[in-house]
Design goal:
Structural class of chain B: alpha/beta
Radius of gyration of chain B: 19 Å
Oligomer: heterodimer
Largest sheet of chain B: 7 strands, mixed
Number of strands of chain B: 7
Number of domains of chain B: 1
CATH architecture of chain B: 3-Layer(aba) Sandwich
Strand content of chain B: 15-25%
Structural class of chain A: alpha/beta
CATH topology of chain B: Rossmann fold
Distance between the termini of chain B: 76 Å
CATH topology of the largest domain in chain A: Rossmann fold
CATH architecture of the largest domain in chain A: 3-Layer(aba) Sandwich
Radius of gyration of chain A: 21 Å
Strand order of the largest sheet of chain B: 2-1-3-4-6-5-7
Distance between the termini of chain A: 48 Å
Number of helices of chain A: 14
Bound molecules: thiamine diphosphate, magnesium ion
Order of helices and strands of chain B: HHEEHEHHEHHEHEHHEH
Largest sheet of chain A: 7 strands, mixed
CATH class of chain B: Alpha Beta
Number of domains of chain A: 2
Number of helices of chain B: 11
CATH superfamily of the largest domain in chain A: Thiamin diphosphate (ThDP)-binding fold, Pyr/PP domains
Strand order of the largest sheet of chain A: 3-2-4-5-7-6-13
CATH superfamily of chain B: Thiamin diphosphate (ThDP)-binding fold, Pyr/PP domains
Helix content of chain A: 40-55%
CATH class of the largest domain in chain A: Alpha Beta
Helix content of chain B: 25-40%
Order of helices and strands of chain A: EHEHHEHEHEHEHEHEHEHEEHEEHEHEH
């Protein structure tokens, strides 16, 4: 059993980063995630592990610092909340185009615009469909607990390096701010320069050795025939993720007639809704996508063959519902897929969800 | 005497730096980029730092700098090279990191990044090619686009077809003077490469900058007042002349600061003395 602590979601991101051997964090303050950098600065990891922590002049700068440091084969990350992630979009696209690993944490708040500092899941489209320009995908993990905030930092780095692709932890203000018991991981030493040269020497800018050709980190290719090849290679990578990396959780789905589909904070709410509905005799289960990209299309398609209908519960105007509909459609099923959600920083109550389930899906 | 009698080792007085690759550059005749590339290759070679130097290329005509100098390179987004260099340098303090940026890249879209990198005193070298125009995109106005000192007519570009108008477009930006004010900088200088003597001076400035980066003295910043014969619609010879007549009066060549980044005590002293 690892060390147990009572921590905030944002704080645990920082602690997990230090423990998993992260080399650097670059960030810019924004509510509701400023505790990530505050915790890192207070922990002074530069003395303990040598990790660099730097407050940048903007999110544009943070993501480009991440881009530079990631190019050298280091484990680097940033965190922000919705408006800041929008600013990072160009940089994220460059990182995806240059095929570099890194971790980006988005502790979402309500938008559009300056919006609200209250929790939201309105950046689902932005995170899962690209966000910046060009045909690229992020690996997107949606934590539903403080423990997962911890666990997904290491997981996101593993996946980012496995695919040489940016990975995003898509949390929200509720998970970032809430405190829960968390079991911390062991300390993993940072990679040494020699180790980085040995493992990533074929692409990383570690300084040109006489033994190898120069390494160039770039997303530029003016020859369209070659650029098409690059894009096809990316698509193949995304297909491989779809095949091997789908993660999800099913709660009481075995005998369920109705399925709630929800991720992150909404999934936590829905857990309670399932209890309340079951107490009323409604056979309902919860399907929780953990990877939002790759999306668990097949498991949902499987469920579609058995159940009477689905209802997505989202803290947005209905974004993930499009992927659930596609999945149900893939199964050749015409089962209803409905949506219930609250907007602008409002968190739905478990009771509201049950009411919606009864009125929209069952009664409808 | 035949050619083969002349081309002999003992007659060799000059050779191309080994770090310049065989790739034929895409630069136009008369462009300053090529000369500065050669100087960088020479300095890196002479200092023996090929294995620990990482260049950050910009978006602009020099985007392909990585094809021409045989070191590791990182191609940055438009204006963001100083942030990319900060990232590289912070996690690899043993490396020598430089950015290579145009005037649109550094003095317009990337103003925030260069100001803050220099203000943090990042131990990097910044090579700033000021050709008073957006070369790559076809010759639009840059923040550095000129007013002719004698006639006070604004420089004609694709987006200032009647000449830069101070009321409409604002003033040509002397960003190097601004950078020179920042306590994080070590060495801030303005050079050119239009004559052999100027080339030699520029080479010296670059070398000093790399030495500063290794000695962790702070940010070293070398502006090179440059020509863009294509963008200016001039022959290479006329471009040099135009630069001397129109750019040098406004962008005078010479050192602006030669020290090292201020320590806390010096910084406080300098800033409190007027209280
Ligand atoms: C975000 C973004 N905006 C605009 C461009 C288009 N663009 C490419 S190069 C350039 C100007 C480059 O001018 P400068 O930095 O002066 O370099 P030069 O070509 O003159 O050497 C522009 C505007 C871009 N690539 N990215
Ligand atoms: Mg220019």
């Amino acid at each position: 059993m690892g060390e147990l602590r009572l921590m905030k979601g944002n704080e645990v991101i920082a602690e997990a980063a230090i423990r998993c051997g992260c080399d650097a964090y670059f960030g810019y303050p924004i509510t509701p995630q400023s505790e990530v950098m505050e915790t890192l600065m207070a922990r002074e990891p530069w003395d303990e592990t040598g990790m660099v922590v730097l407050q940048a002049e903007s999110e544009v700068a943070s993501i480009n610092m991440v881009y530079g440091a990631a190019g050298t084969g280091k484990k680097v990350m940033t965190s922000s909340s919705s408006p800041g992630i929008s600013l990072m979009a160009e940089g994220i696209s460059y990182i995806a185009g240059a095929e570099l690993p890194c971790v980006i944490v988005n502790v979402q708040r309500g938008g559009p615009g300056l919006g609200t500092i209250q929790p939201s899941q309105a950046d689902y489209f932005q995170s899962t469909k690209g966000g910046g320009h060009g045909d690229y995908r992020l690996i997107v993990l949606a934590p539903a607990s403080v423990q997962e905030m911890h666990d997904f930092v290491g997981l996101a780095f593993d996946l980012a390096f496995k695919y040489r692709n940016p990975a995003m932890i898509l949390a929200d203000g509720a998970i970032g701010q809430m405190m829960e018991k968390v079991e911390l991981g062991d300390f993993v030493p940072r990679k040494t320069s020699a180790e980085i040269d040995a493992v990533y020497g074929s692409w990383a800018t570690t300084g040109k050795k006489a033994s190898r050709a120069k390494n160039v980190i770039t997303s530029l290719e003016l020859d369209s025939a070659l650029m098409e090849q690059n894009n096809l290679r990316f698509q193949e990578k995304y297909r491989k993720m779809q095949q091997d990396e789908v993660r999800y959780e099913m709660i009481q789905c075995e005998d369920a007639e109705y399925i709630l589909v929800a991720f992150g904070s909404s999934a936590r709410i829905c857990q309670k809704s399932v209890e309340l509905a079951r107490a009323k005799g409604i056979k309902v289960g919860l399907f929780r996508p953990i990877t939002l990209f790759p999306f668990p299309t097949e498991p949902i398609a499987e469920l579609a063959k058995k159940v009477k209908g689905f209802m997505t519960v989202e803290m947005n105007a209905g974004q993930m519902i499009e992927d659930v509909r596609l999945a149900v459609g893939c199964a050749g099923e015409s089962k209803p897929v409905l949506y219930f959600g609250r907007l602008g920083g409002i968190i739905p109550t478990p009771g509201e969800v049950v009411d919606a389930l009864e009125q929209k899906l069952i009664g409808g | 005497m035949e050619v083969k009698d002349i081309i002999k080792d003992e007659n060799l007085v000059y050779s191309r730096p080994k770090l310049l690759t065989d790739k034929i550059t895409h630069y136009c005749p008369g462009c300053s980029h090529g000369v500065v590339h050669k100087l960088l290759a020479e300095v890196i070679e002479e200092m023996g730092i090929q294995e620990k130097t990482i260049g950050v290329s910009p978006v602009g005509c020099a985007v392909f700098a990585y094809n021409y100098i045989d070191i590791d390179w990182h191609e940055a987004a438009h204006g963001r090279a100083p942030a990319v260099a900060t990232g590289i340098s912070r996690v690899n303090p043993d490396k020598v990191v430089f950015t290579y940026q145009g005037d649109g890249d550094l003095a317009s879209i990337g103003t925030a990044e260069i100001m803050h990198a220099a203000n943090r005193g990042e131990n990097i070298v910044v090579v700033f090619i000021n050709n008073a125009i957006y070369g790559m995109t076809g010759g639009q106005m840059a923040p550095t686009t000129q007013m002719a000192p004698t006639t006070l007519l604004g420089q004609v570009t694709a987006t200032t077809p009647c000449g830069r108008d101070l009321a409409r477009n604002g003033y040509p930006l002397k960003i190097t003077e601004l950078i020179g004010q920042l306590p994080g900088t070590a060495y801030v200088t303005r050079q050119s490469v239009h004559t052999p003597a100027a080339v030699r001076k520029c080479r010296k400035a670059l070398k000093k900058s790399f030495e500063n980066a290794i000695a962790k003295k702070g940010t070293s910043f070398v502006e090179v007042v440059s020509t863009c014969s294509s963008g200016w619609r001039l022959s290479p010879v006329d471009a040099n002349k135009w630069m001397e007549e129109n750019m040098f009066p406004f962008y005078p060549v010479g050192d602006i600061k030669d020290a090292e980044k201020a320590g806390a005590e010096l910084f406080m002293q300098q800033n409190l003395k007027n209280c």
